[in-house]
Amino acid sequence: MGDGILLKPKKPFGETTLENVAGCLKYRGTPKSLDELEDAIRQGVEEQFDNCN
Which superkingdom (predicted)? Predict the structure, then answer.
């Protein structure tokens, strides 16, 4: 081989199903409206890019 870097892929983890990981998605509380979700996303974007000026 000449000059360079050889990259080898990591072994992937075993196959999973939605049932294996869905437990971490549970939300306890009142459901959020679409407006509340959009407001939270907007606020997060504004906070993240507030210092870009």
Answer: Bacteria
- In tens, the pLDDT along 30-53 reads 999 999 999 999 999 999 888 676
Q: Taking Cα atoms as reference points, which of 10, 38, 5, 36 lies closest to residue 46?
A: 38
Token couple for 20:
């294996």
Q: How far is CA 34 from CA 4, 15, 37, 39, 46, in A?
A: 50, 33, 5, 9, 18
CA end-to-end span of the chain? 47
What stretch of H or E contains 36?
A: helix 34-48
Answer whether residue 2 shows pLDDT above 80: no
